[in-house]
Amino acid sequence: MKKPQAHHDLPQKFKDRFSRLGLDINNPKHMRWVEGGPHGNHQKWSHEFNKQWERFFQNPDVTAKDAVKFMNNLRQNTKFQ
Fold first, then answer.
1. How far apart are CA 36 and CA 44, in angstroms?
2. Euclidean distance between the first and final Cα of the chain, in Å?
3. What is the DSSP string of 14-46?
4. For position 39, what pLDDT does the model report?
5. Residue 31 in contact with residue 8, Cβ under 8 Å?
6. What is the dihedral sign for C-alpha 67, 59, 76, 42?
């Protein structure tokens, strides 16, 4: 990577929601390195990434297991690389 940036796969915007599920957004297993600007797209896709999480949290009954599964699915999505 030319300009690695730390990325929270459990976005900081939803820290309180993840905390209520017992998930620590700063745990390294919930983070990864992504290519930052100007060579990477991190800033270009972060907004849409958060929108995906907003949709996820529209379900009031989600569990920590649901969140981790959703996080792993987003990690596999080439749009968010």
1. 10
2. 12
3. GHHHHHHTT--TTSGGGEEEEE-TTTS-HHHHH
4. 59
5. yes
6. negative
